[in-house]
Design goal:
The protein is α/β, with parallel strands linked by helices and 453 residues long. The protein folds into 2 domains: 4-104 and 313-403, Rossmann fold, CATH 3.40.50; 107-310, FAD/NAD(P)-binding domain. 38% of the residues lie in helices and 21% in strands. The protein has a 7-stranded mixed sheet with strand order 3-2-1-4-18-17-16, covered by helices on one side. A 6-stranded parallel sheet has the order 6-14-7-8-10-9. A hairpin with a 2-residue loop joins strand 12 (282-290) and strand 13 (293-301). The two termini are 23 Å apart. Bound molecules: flavin-adenine dinucleotide. The site of flavin-adenine dinucleotide has 37 residues, from helix 1, strand 2, helix 2 and helix 7.
């Protein structure tokens, strides 16, 4: 029986689960190459999930075990699909290609002033504090008094919480040392979280909100009048237990009142952003209209605005893309071009279903994808026509691609541990891509082995 060779593009949760499930579920031999454009695996678990959520991040331990213990499973980091190697090339070198490359862009508000300096997508802020190599260390200077976060999802609360978190708490995370310093120098005293509708429709979870209440330096400010729900909110809350639990916690927060703490997070509901105002090209305020009464407007002074209204998929050359949803169109995870299935090409994760769900949601999503891949493999009558692993390596090496394999990633991890130890922290992320590549290359020259492990 010939071995089926599959390429998975993206090593975030959906790519990692796809690789794991392919090797677990296949009845015939299968080899999987997982590509990532970054030198590091795990996508948004490393660069999205908040640094003070170590339990969620610990999923990387079980992903790592899979990469280390599964014969025929390789990590090929620092390979940008669409730039270093084309989609058509991948299709010709593998029996199946699964796209699991996430949603790396963000939705805009499309209001005047969005281009002003200090108006950012929350994604940029998150990438910065997480030390994502695409985001410069100097991208944010936290020297204002009031920041606003537009949006009421979990990511919005992550950003708000990071802006008020005690520095000792941040030092217990793995964020780069210069980012801790930037937070330590922050002059922000207030974060205003803006929701278009009322609290009954807030999208963040009760658990995330409780975490905010536990930040000792910070008052949580909620106007009790906002908690008198209109009929639409009441109907929603009656029908949705999660919304009901959240509302109960909102009430407790409002009852706790203002304790005179040095920082505060204030919730402003029923407000639609209608523009940003600035001085000399830099943000100075956000213009808001009451959603329930658009003729009532106000300008709230602010020195930093983060819009948290959704991540968005990005088209890849040669792969069908639905601009409206920001996803790759598919039928049962098989990519379709119009009505026609593109043979051997599949999708999983955020690029398949949009930016929603928790890490575990991607397992179910990946299982659907793997089921389709394996059905097609079983139905195929001819034997594999894929290139060998060595041939793929040769192709990448002929292009001068500096592939970071699993051992290279382990070397980066070790360097992060050593950097942490040098400043009395458990681990400190490397931020600079060149430094990561230097660490991986130094390891390669030490062990002298080109394999991808
Ligand atoms: C700020 C934030 C906080 C979150 N917090 C939580 C939380 O606390 N708990 C929870 O359960 N979930 C959380 N999530 C959700 C969770 O992170 C996602 O469900 C999950 O990461 C989506 O997985 P994915 O594999 O589809 O995409 P990603 O995780 O984005 O992975 C995509 C991977 O593809 C790579 N890639 C992209 N383009 C290419 C290319 N052209 N070539 C090669 N590689 C490429 C990327 O580098 C990346 O590694 C959070 C999400 C965000 C944004």
């Amino acid at each position: 029986m010939s071995t089926t060779r599959v390429a998975v593009i993206g090593s975030g949760p959906s790519g990692a689960y796809t690789a794991q499930l392919l090797t677990e579920e296949s009845e015939s031999p299968v080899e999987v190459d997982v590509f990532d454009r970054l030198p590091t695996p795990f996508g948004l678990v490393r660069y999205g999930v908040a640094p003070d959520h170590p339990r969620v991040k610990s999923i990387t331990t079980s992903f790592a075990e899979v990469f280390e213990d599964t014969p025929g499973l390789r990590f090929l980091g620092n390979v940008h699909v669409g730039a270093d190697v084309s989609i058509d090339e991948l299709r010709s070198h593998y029996d199946a290609v699964v796209f699991a490359h996430g949603a790396p862009l963000d939705r805009r508000l499309d209001v005047p002033g969005e281009e002003l300096a200090r108006v950012h997508a929350v994604r940029e802020f998150v990438s910065w504090y997480q030390g994502h190599p695409d985001q410069s260390a100097e991208a944010f200077v936290l020297d204002g008094r009031r920041a606003v976060v537009v949006g009421v999802g979990n990511v919005a609360l992550d950003a708000a919480r990071m802006l008020v978190r005690e520095i000792d708490d941040l030092r217990r995370t793995d964020i780069p040392e210069h980012i801790v310093d930037a937070f330590a120098a922050s002059t922000f005293e207030e974060v205003v979280v803006i929701g278009r509708r009322g609290p009954g429709f807030a999208k963040f979870t009760n658990k995330e909100f409780i975490e905010l209440l536990e930040v000792e330096s910070t008052d949580i400010v909620i106007d009790p009048a906002d908690l008198e729900l209109d009929a639409a909110q009441q109907a929603h809350v009656d029908a949705d237990p999660a919304a009901r639990r959240l509302l109960t916690t909102f009430r407790k927060a409002a009852d706790r009142g203002i304790l005179g703490r040095p920082k505060s997070i204030r919730f402003l509901f029923d407000r639609t952003p209608i523009g940003f105002v600035g001085d000399d090209g830099t943000l100075s305020g956000i213009r808001l209209a009451k959603t329930s009464d658009p003729s009532t407007t106000e300008v709230l002074e602010t020195q930093l605005a983060l819009r948290s209204v959704g991540y968005l998929g990005k088209p890849l050359d040669g792969l069908p893309f639905d601009e409206r949803t920001g996803t790759v169109p598919h039928l049962d995870s098989r990519v379709v071009d119009g009505e026609v299935v593109v043979p051997g090409v599949y999708v999983a994760g955020w690029i398949k279903r949009g930016p929603n769900g928790v890490v575990g949601t991607n397992r179910k999503c990946a299982l659907e994808t793997v089921t389709s891949v394996l059905e097609d493999v079983a139905a195929r009558e001819h034997t594999s026509t894929a290139s060998t692993a060595a041939e793929v390596d040769e192709l990448l090496s002929s292009r001068g691609v500096d592939v970071v394999d699993w051992h290279g990633w382990r070397a980066i991890e070790e360097a992060e541990g050593a950097t942490g130890a040098s400043v009395g922290r458990e681990r400190v992320k490397l931020h600079d891509r060149d430094e990561m590549l230097r660490v991986a290359a130094a390891h390669r020259s030490l062990v002298g082995a080109p394999g991808h492990g």
